[in-house]
Specification:
single chain; alpha/beta; 7-stranded parallel β-sheet; 3-stranded mixed β-sheet; 14 strands; 40% helix; 18% strand; globular
Length: 341
């Protein structure tokens, strides 16, 4: 049994990952400033697992709070989710993203080093590949050429961790490059609950389906893809969460830097997702074609073979499960964690 610190653990991916670690028998400490999450998610995680976790409210840029956290809890490994993640907002507010994501990560890593905790799984992103020359994307593809400050912040943090490992050979580091997490826990009790207008496709589609929004804007229908809309590798958040447990277990093998793509290897277009959600929700979903959005690329999907080989991990849940679970969460919680009942 280990004690795992989840920064940003009250968020969408963090809360699902908390369930997987608790069910694997590990103890969980969540550190989150709640800027884009709700403590209700953690209450439900404990309800679903029948296990307690520890929640500490704080910001990754607060070194004194981090030092106290590591003093008060015997942490074995850190899974670092905390960060701002809206591509469009990052284009509008780059300094906010560099301060929070990069500056906060440096502060976290300094606190870890001071506490002698040198095992970390970093929540990275397929955006580090930029606009790929080809798909399926492998881990040895070139990185850089990122198309927005969000992706650039992930790239910088990856590089910082790699440089730390060169300077100190004791670090055990996993860089997990996610593709597009969607879906929700099958209980319908936890899911994606963005503050304000959703920046990601699936919560927007599901909010249209549940009647919270009038229609979906489809940004661009002139990409070089089968139906002209952007193609992405959508991965069920529960599959993604299980990948973090596998990564922490693998880091026990020894020090070094490991990079794994977490995706399905299949690309679906925006309109594919709209039609799949129409089927899951048994209702039409209104959409309008809008101009392309700054920072978006035509297509992006993974070659997940390395994670299968190294971790014994692969995505198990298909498109139908992603949409059915999304709809169950949204219909049971029409206003997210603010819903009654």
């Amino acid at each position: 049994m280990k004690t795992i610190l989840l920064t940003g653990g009250a968020g969408y991916i963090g809360s699902h990952t908390a369930i997987e670690f608790l069910q694997a028998g590990d103890d969980v400490v969540v550190y989150d400033n709640l800027c884009n999450s709700s403590p209700e998610s953690l209450r439900r995680v404990q309800q679903l697992t029948g296990r307690e976790l520890i929640f500490v409210e704080g910001d990754i840029r607060d070194r004194a709070a981090l030092d106290a956290l590591f003093r008060n809890h015997d942490i074995d490994a850190v899974v670092h989710f905390a960060g701002l993640k809206a591509v469009g907002e990052s284009v509008e507010k780059p300094m906010l993203y560099y301060d929070n994501n990069v500056g906060g990560s440096v502060t976290l890593f300094e606190a870890m080093q001071a506490a002698g905790v040198k095992t970390i799984v970093f929540s990275s992103s397929a955006t580090v590949y930029g606009d790929p020359a080809s798909v399926h994307i492998r881990e040895d593809f070139p990185v850089g050429g990122t198309t927005n400050p969000y992706g650039t912040s992930k790239l910088f943090i990856e590089k910082i961790l790699q440089d730390m490992a060169i300077a100190d050979a004791d670090w055990r580091i996993a860089l997990l490059r996610y593709f597009n997490p969607v879906g929700a826990h099958e209980s319908g009790q936890i899911g994606e609950d963005p503050q304000g207008i959703p920046n990601n496709l699936m919560p927007y589609i599901s909010q249209v389906a549940v009647g919270r929004r009038e229609f979906l804007n489809v940004f661009g229908n002139d990409y070089p893809t089968p139906d002209g809309t952007g193609v992405r590798d959508y991965i069920h958040v529960v599959d993604l969460a299980k990948g973090h447990v596998k990564a922490v277990q693998k880091l026990a093998d020894g020090p070094g830097v490991n990079i794994w793509n977490l995706g399905t290897g299949h690309g679906y277009s925006v309109l594919d997702m709209v039609h799949a959600m129409e089927k899951a929700a048994a209702r039409p979903i209104a959409y309008k074609i809008a101009p392309r959005r700054a920072g978006d690329i035509a297509q992006c999907y993974a070659d997940p073979a390395k994670a299968a080989m190294d971790l014994g991990w692969k995505a198990e849940k298909g498109l139908d499960a992603m949409c059915v679970d999304t709809w169950r969460w949204q219909s049971m919680n029409p206003n997210g964690y603010n819903s009654q009942g």
